[in-house]
């Protein structure tokens, strides 16, 4: 059964570790993440961007796939299926209707008043379905699935207004970017501490791929309890496919079998990347 994110993130905040949100794109992706997290007894959040939802067919297809895999693979760790960067109230509701127990409403491009109003509407709907809600203030830099932004630091008053809507977790943008950083990241660690304390919410770090490990550790200590990882798994996958093709394995015997193309290197690369993150975030053996 799918869980919401409330308990695992509050536990993470208290225990000073972070739960990874690993964005998925297809069945192999989902299976690789679930298997790795089960092996390491780590609670997990599966992220789906609106682009990925469209790609995989829709919310119902994804709920069916994730729930089916959980049953067949005998997954016992808490699994949260989460809409990443929901762009409208309507889409958040649609995800919840299809069975999602967690959504992000990304109103970061709106003014704070409008962001608060719409976030509140999502929270009210989510509460009726025991679903958790993530909101965003400030803007994460870079481009994620067409959601483009320059870095814009969240302010304390914005964090307090959005926290008052009753959200579960807060993405307060403090210098991270989607994809790779150009130059060295300048994260607002002091603000993280202040905002985490003031809102009493687990903070969410978007763009976890481009941040050096020592800064991730520092961010967790400062209150980040959910870290989103997307780009690095994509790169690990692409590298595995590239190696397979460059070794011309697709031209040997029955090497054109898609299960071999994906299963030989790319699948293991994805699992290794997730395992590394679980260790870095301190989530190993945290599934209860
Ligand atoms: Zn993001």
Topology:
Blueprint: H1 6-15, E1 19-23, H2 27-39, E2 44-49, H3 50-56, H4 59-72, E3 79-86, H5 89-98, E4 102-105, H6 112-128, E5 132-137, E6 142-144, E7 147-149, H7 156-163, E8 169-172, H8 189-199, E9 203-205, H9 213-221, E10 224-229, H10 231-246, H11 258-281
Parallel strand pairs: 1-2, 1-10, 2-3, 3-4, 4-5, 5-8, 9-10
Antiparallel strand pairs: 6-7
The protein binds zinc ion (ZN).
Zinc ion is lined by residues 85, 140, 144, 178, 206, 228.
What can you tell me about this protein's structure?
This protein is of the alpha/beta class and 288 residues long. The chain has a single domain (6-232), classed as Alpha-Beta Barrel (TIM Barrel). The protein has helices at residues 6-15, 27-39, 50-56, 59-72, 89-98, 112-128, 156-163, 189-199, 213-221, 231-246, 258-281; strands at residues 19-23, 44-49, 79-86, 102-105, 132-137, 142-144, 147-149, 169-172, 203-205, 224-229. Strands 8-5-4-3-2-1-10-9 form an eight-stranded parallel β-sheet. It has a two-stranded antiparallel ribbon with strand order 6-7. The chain is globular, with a radius of gyration of 18 Å. The model has no long low-confidence stretch (mean pLDDT 95). The structure holds zinc ion. Zinc ion binds next to loops.
């Amino acid at each position: 059964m799918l869980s919401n994110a409330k308990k695992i993130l509050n536990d993470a905040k208290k225990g000073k570790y972070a739960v990874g949100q690993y964005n998925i794109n297809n069945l192999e992706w989902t299976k690789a993440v679930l298997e790795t997290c089960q092996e390491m007894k780590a609670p997990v959040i599966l992220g789906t961007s609106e682009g990925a939802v469209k790609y995989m067919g829709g919310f119902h297809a994804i709920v069916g796939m994730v729930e089916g895999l959980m049953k067949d693979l005998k997954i016992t760790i808490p699994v949260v299926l989460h809409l990443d960067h929901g762009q409208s109230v309507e889409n958040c509701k649609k995800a919840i209707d299809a069975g999602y127990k967690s959504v992000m409403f990304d109103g970061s491009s709106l003014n704070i008043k409008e962001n608060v109003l719409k976030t509140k509407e999502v929270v009210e709907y989510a509460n009726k379905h025991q679903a958790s809600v993530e909101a965003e203030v400030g803007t994460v830099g870079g481009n994620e699935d067409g959601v483009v932004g320059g870095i814009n630091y969240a302010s304390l008053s914005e964090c307090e207004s959005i926290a008052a809507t009753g959200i579960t977790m807060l993405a307060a943008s403090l210098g991270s970017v989607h994809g790779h950083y150009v130059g060295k990241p300048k994260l607002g660690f002091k603000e993280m501490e202040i905002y985490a304390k003031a809102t009493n919410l687990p903070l969410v770090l978007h763009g976890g791929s481009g941040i050096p490990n020592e800064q991730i550790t520092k961010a967790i200590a400062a209150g980040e309890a959910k870290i989103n990882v997307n780009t690095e798994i994509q790169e690990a996958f692409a590298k595995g496919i590239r190696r397979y093709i460059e070794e011309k394995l697709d031209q040997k015997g029955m090497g054109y079998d898609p299960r071999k193309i994906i299963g030989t290197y790319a699948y293991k690369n994805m699992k290794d990347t997730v395992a590394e993150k679980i260790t870095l975030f301190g989530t190993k053996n945290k599934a209860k």
